[in-house]
Amino acid sequence: MTELKTDRLLLRQWQDSDYEPFAAMNADPAVMEHFPAPMTREASDGLIDRIKPSIEERGFGLWALEVLDTGRFIGFTGLSVPSFEAHFMPAVEIGWRLSKDAWGNGYASEAARASLADGFGPAGLEEIVSFTATSNKPSQRVMERIGMTHDEAGDFDHPKLEPGHRLERHVLYRITRAQWEARR
């Protein structure tokens, strides 16, 4: 199993010890502000259970994120294949979710850069997308920091949300292998 390392972080396969802090993070209203609702413990555990095989099958996925110096679990970052229909599909998405106490340290950008390198390197991808609710300015700033470009014509209403939902409208960001290589 491949692990990704940065100067400060380890992106790794999920461990049994991650379930509890992940559930606490997913139950935090601040962390889940740009999602429809905080997650129950059962839903949070189920998410890990779906992520783990994806990493094993594809060689990439939403990696558990750990601070190297302390071994502390702080969330996830990585690549996934969205499970809904949209005009930009099929696609591979880069995403992240960090515990509130890990915010403001540059961890999301650092881990996302490692994920892009893995996606355009060993995974052999030609393009990676990211999307979020229009209100999620912090994630949009991460997308811009890692070299992604807002595709305004690609913005969309998320099909898994009810029409009129406060989070329905999403922005779409993209980066191609060529764009990523030019920034290296």
Automatic annotation (TrEMBL):
The lineage of its organism: Bacteria, Bacillati, Actinomycetota, Actinomycetes, Propionibacteriales. PANTHER family: GNAT FAMILY, PUTATIVE (AFU_ORTHOLOGUE AFUA_3G00765)-RELATED-RELATED, N-ACETYLTRANSFERASE DOMAIN-CONTAINING PROTEIN. It holds the Pfam family Acetyltransf_3. Residues 9-178 form the N-acetyltransferase domain. PROSITE patterns: GNAT (PS51186). InterPro entries: Acyl_CoA_acyltransferase (IPR016181), GNAT_dom (IPR000182), N-acetyltransferase (IPR051531). SUPFAM superfamilies: Acyl-CoA N-acyltransferases (Nat). This is RimJ/RimL family protein N-acetyltransferase.
